[in-house]
Design brief:
513 residues; alpha+beta; eleven-stranded mixed β-sheet; five-stranded mixed β-sheet; 14 helices; 23 strands; 33% helix; globular; binds ligand 87C; binds magnesium ion
């Protein structure tokens, strides 16, 4: 595994491809848009699963599994949601040598696979709330350029599907799940996200409303949807006849059937791509300690041809004792004792793999009863020494410091690229300077289309991103945290120069994935 031979700031897609393959996170296959998730990335996905499972279990959500294939009849049951997506559905038309009577859809999401079951199992209000989740794969025949982790034809995710008696009970869960998505990014992946609501134009057509966590890729200045939690309202319940008898109906009165209120929520392996793009540098991956398989790699140094076999043995024993002390302290530590590679080679290798902390240990360190450490997130800061006696306390603390420093750095970067814009003439230049923009907006879908149009052309004299000159800005979300700056209801105008309406909310716009 030689190092990365292109700079992130010079050629992001080449850099990204090298970092994920040489960092042993993902491999390409001969199926377009389908990738191998190597243990490096799959291990991170498992930590996300453990984190999320622990929390949804406390909410009474139970994991389950529904079929990969969905009948065409079932897929068509919810009209307005499927017609918008029909082009993305993959179909199976043959089984062995036989053409199938009826073609089968490969699930692109499981609403229509699950809600017939919901209709059968939910008869009385006592069957509510029903809360199920699936960890599975889905297929969407995307035509846009595939990008490992970020946009693939098959991806892994969890999809939660719940049914409730009331809209407010459903609404509470929508926000609880969104908080957990934010926590996965903030606490595990050290990636900042903005919580908000999708505008009508950008929400999932089958939903009553959609909430979202929006990420940001600094290298391109583009926003990226990082997770969604929808209230589906009663749309699907009406399509799939998911009803309960009115629990408040008086005795003897005809019992009215009430449609349940549903939610669905999903987070995908895209989260891993966002983490890599956010933290990676020109030496390779930079993995946040909380999701790192190896948190500290111990490399013995100072062994030369002149080192006697006895001294080498003694030194290696001391090196292993350091590892044991760290394991004892709950640190995921490993040693690299390979005698066929130099320390320099090992330093580059583990930097490429993104291991958060390197611990060098040589005879000089041993004599001083210290180790020499190098932080992966601050290689330029050089090395420092830690007394061996303090390792059990100092290393766990240092890993937590690295985690929070990585999150703070990424949060500051995102914050510095969320520009408050109130004058249209500042909008496109801000986009071209790799920013997202918060603007007073009327929330009308047609107006969003106009803004996309107005921000997609080339502007005379403006330096435009060569690879996406034609990409207009779309709305990313209506942030729950609205800027303090005054948007005077009924007075402040919508920022779109062609729009005569008043602004309703501050809306975050940006070029996006
Ligand atoms: O998948 C959802 C809604 C919902 N599905 C479950 C998890 C949460 C949330 O994403 C929206 N959606 C997106 N994309 C597609 C579909 C679709 O329903 C259906 C057809 C193929 C493409
Ligand atoms: Mg899509």
């Amino acid at each position: 595994l030689i190092g990365i031979d292109v700079a992130k700031e010079d050629d992001l897609s080449e850099w990204y491809q090298q970092v994920i393959t040489k960092g042993e996170m993902l491999e390409f296959t001969d199926v377009p848009g389908c990738y191998i998730y190597e243990p490096g990335s799959y291990g991170i996905y498992e930590r996300i699963q453990d984190f999320f499972n622990a929390r949804i279990r406390k909410m009474g959500v139970r994991n389950c599994y529904f079929p990969l294939f969905i009948s065409e009849a079932n897929l068509q049951r919810e009209k307005d949601h499927i017609e918008g997506f029909a082009a993305e559905v993959a179909w199976v038309t043959e089984g062995g040598k036989n053409k199938l009577e009826k073609r089968l859809a490969v699930r692109p999401t499981s609403e229509t696979a699950m809600y017939g079951y919901f209709s059968k199992k939910i008869r009385s209000h006592r069957d509510l709330p029903l809360k199920l989740n699936q960890w599975n794969n889905v297929v969407r025949w995307e035509f846009k350029h595939p990008m490992p982790f970020i946009r693939s034809r098959e991806f892994l995710w969890q999809e939660g599907h719940t049914a409730h008696m009331t809209e407010e009970e459903a609404g509470k869960e929508v926000l609880q799940i969104l908080d957990y998505y934010e926590a996965i990014y903030h606490e595990l992946l050290a990636v900042p996200v903005v919580k908000g609501r999708k505008t009508v134009a950008e929400q999932f057509p089958g939903a009553h409303y959609t909430t979202t966590v929006e990420g940001f890729i600094p290298s391109t200045g583009r926003g990226i949807q990082a997770g969604t939690s929808h209230c589906l309202g009663q749309h699907f319940a009406k399509m799939f006849d998911i009803t309960v008898e009115d629990p408040h109906a008086k005795e003897g009165e005809k019992k009215e059937k009430l449609h349940v209120w549903q939610n669905s929520w999903g987070l995908t392996t895209r989260s891993i791509g966002i983490m890599i793009l956010t933290h990676g540098d020109n030496k390779g991956l930079v993995i946040p300690p909380r999701v790192a398989e190896i948190q500290a790699i111990i490399v013995p140094v100072g062994m030369t041809a002149k080192t006697t076999a006895e001294d080498r043995e003694k030194h290696y024993a001391e090196t292993n004792a350091i590892k044991d002390a760290l394991l004892e302290a709950g640190v995921r530590a490993e040693t690299d004792m390979r005698d066929d590679q130099s320390p320099g080679w090992k330093f580059n290798h583990w930097e490429l793999k993104g291991v958060p902390l390197r611990i060098e240990f040589g005879p000089k360190d041993s004599a001083k009863k210290v180790v020499t450490i190098a932080r992966r997130d601050q290689l330029a800061a050089g090395k420092s020494e830690i007394p061996i006696a303090d390792l059990g306390k100092d290393i766990p603390a240092l890993l937590e410091t690295i985690q929070s420093d990585m999150f703070r750095k990424a949060s500051d970067e995102f914050r510095d690229h969320r520009k408050i814009i109130t004058k249209w003439d500042d909008f496109v230049p801000a986009l071209n300077a790799k920013n997202t923009c918060l603007i007073p907006h009327c929330l009308v879908p047609d107006c969003e289309d106009e803004i996309k149009e107005l921000s997609s052309g080339k502007i005379e004299g403006q330096e435009v991103d060569a690879r996406a000159p034609s990409m207009g800005a779309k709305s990313l979300c209506i942030p729950f945290d609205q800027p303090a700056e005054g948007l005077v209801q009924g007075e402040t105008k919508c920022t779109n120069p062609k729009c005569e309406r008043k602004a309703e909310k501050w809306v975050m716009f940006g070029r996006s994935y």
